[in-house]
Amino acid sequence: MHLRTMSVCAFLLALPVGSAAAAPVRLGAPPGSTGVHRAHSASSNCPVWSGGTGILADGDFSEAPDPGTGLPTFHRGAVFAPDWTVTGDTIDLYGSTAWGPDTGYCSVDLDGTPGPGGIRHTAFATKSGQPYTVTFLLSGNGACGPTVKTMSIIAARQFTTFTWDISNGNDAQHGVWLPESWVFKAHGPNTILQFKSKDSPGNCGPVVAAISVTPS
């Protein structure tokens, strides 16, 4: 386990370019919910996301062993879950209770130890010309800089950028997460989805969880 110092800071910025902010949620609750869902899968794997992951095989990392309070580091090329591969340098997989006892789900810090890194889901079936919506929960690791975390999502030769400002305690350590979404149009029968940190080398980056893809 890597020891990290929690920063104490309250202004939140978690915006895709050109969009408005959504209301913050707890990681333990699906978007639109105010409750904390703590249901775990029957195995020792990461809990299943109660909102579902759409056409993704493993958007909630529930096929990966749950590190619990741990945060193991995985390096470029590692398959940390059957359908997820590490890109870039490294990522940290946070267990379902690593951010606190009420977290409820596993998440990925895209700046590993050290980063920056990224994750790539195996190709999933799509219909050319069909739009698809990617939804996920976004936060930031507030234990260290940069203050503004930056990441991109890439699919079907399209991408968008999201940022997260950890100022004033608006971070995963304080249970602050936002539901985010992005729409891409498929260009073929299969599509690969990637999340990529755009930060400079460091250990504390944008954090993602509960990823889903559905036809729009």
* Helix/strand/pairing category: mainly beta
Number of strands: 13
Number of domains: 1
Report the top-level CATH class: Mainly Beta
Q: What are the segments in which pLDDT stays under 50 over at least 5 consecutive residues?
A: 1-21, 29-42
Mean pLDDT figure: 85
For the record, give the distance between the C-alpha atoms at the N and C termini, rounded to a whole number. Answer: 40 Å
Gross CATH architecture: Sandwich
Biggest sheet, open or closed, and with what strands and sense? 7 strands, antiparallel
Radius of gyration: 16 Å
Strand arrangement, major sheet: 1-10-9-12-7-4-3
Helix content: under 10%
Would you spell out the secondary-structure blueprint of this structure?
Blueprint: E1 13-16, E2 73-75, E3 79-81, E4 84-88, E5 90-94, E6 107-109, E7 117-125, E8 131-140, E9 148-155, E10 158-165, E11 178-185, E12 190-197, E13 206-215
Antiparallel strand pairs: 1-10, 2-5, 3-4, 4-7, 5-6, 6-13, 7-12, 8-11, 8-13, 9-10, 9-12
